Amino acid sequence: MDTMRDRFAPVVSRLLDEDPRVAVVLAEIGKDGFAEAMRRHPERVINVGIREQLLVGAAAGLALTGLRPIVHTFASFLVERPFEQVKLDFGHQNTGAVLVSAAASFDWPAGGYTHMAPGDVALLDTLDGWTVHVPGHPDEAETLLRRAVAAGDDKVYVRLSVQANRQGRAVDGERFLTVREGRSGVVVAVGPVLDAVLAATEGLDLTVLYATTVRPFDTAGLRRAVQGADTDVVLVEPYLTGTSTAAVSEALAEVPHRVLGLGVGRRELRRYGTVEEHVAAHGLDARSLRERIGGFVGAGRASVRA
């Protein structure tokens, strides 16, 4: 199976051919995939070099001229390093773009902590008006990317990862999908953690919701899911632990509930290792998730009986 990032350049190259508003801004990373597109559209495929603040500033300038820029580099260089430009050049100037990241939380462990960005979604949460897509499969990435480009002049972040579920699902960029139904609680699995969540909850009486768009958060979908079920909610995200727990609490503000946020911990892992070892170290593998989810939901039922 190709990766989400393998799919990125071909899809965007076709969008450049199809839509004269589309532009691409790069900072060295990913430029080889756009060599042919740059020859066809030299005025709309721009490589600024290793200058991430300029990457965002140039994209905002293109947006002000009426173009729809797609901006791409590693998440740590797209959201964290040029955050002031993201805040001011897009937010303060009230313009938009499609930011498409690679490397996710720890997709390239050998690159070290400079190339890891588990806090990217939480950081964007400090700003107003961002749509955040977290696809879990290359097919979903293509769907959400096309939707993001077509979203007028909105501010959209698409988070690509080498981690992926075995199958893509029919996502619409808005609503959570109900993958499994149960009565003892709800687990919200975000993007590429779905397969691990399904394995972890096999045989448990739990509803599993699949989220590939986390901002705006599908509050109506979560409220429907907790009707007739215990209001224990477990949120499993492939980035910083607890990033969306406030969104869950806001959605269920009028409903007594408990929420457990699972994700990438704040403790820095200082050895390279493999992606799989990082997943296990953060407790996001199926075995760890089963222990943590089962313990939380089981404890909730025990407290109710008491």
From TrEMBL:
Which CDD domains does the record cross-reference, listed alphabetically?
TPP_PYR_DXS_TK_like
Q: Which InterPro entries match?
A: PDH/Transketolase (IPR051157), THDP-binding (IPR029061), Transketo_C/PFOR_II (IPR009014), Transketolase-like_Pyr-bd (IPR005475), Transketolase_C (IPR033248)
Entry keywords, A to Z:
Transferase
UniProt EC number: 2.2.1.1
Which Pfam family is one of this chain's hits?
Transketolase_C
One GO MF annotation is: magnesium ion binding
Answer yes or no on keyword Transferase.
Answer: yes
In this chain the Transketolase-like pyrimidine-binding domain maps to 2-167
Please give the PANTHER family that the UniProt record associates with this protein.
PYRUVATE DEHYDROGENASE E1 COMPONENT, TRANSKETOLASE-LIKE PYRIMIDINE-BINDING DOMAIN-CONTAINING PROTEIN
Q: What is this protein called?
A: Transketolase
Q: What is the lineage of its organism?
A: Bacteria, Bacillati, Actinomycetota, Actinomycetes, Kitasatosporales
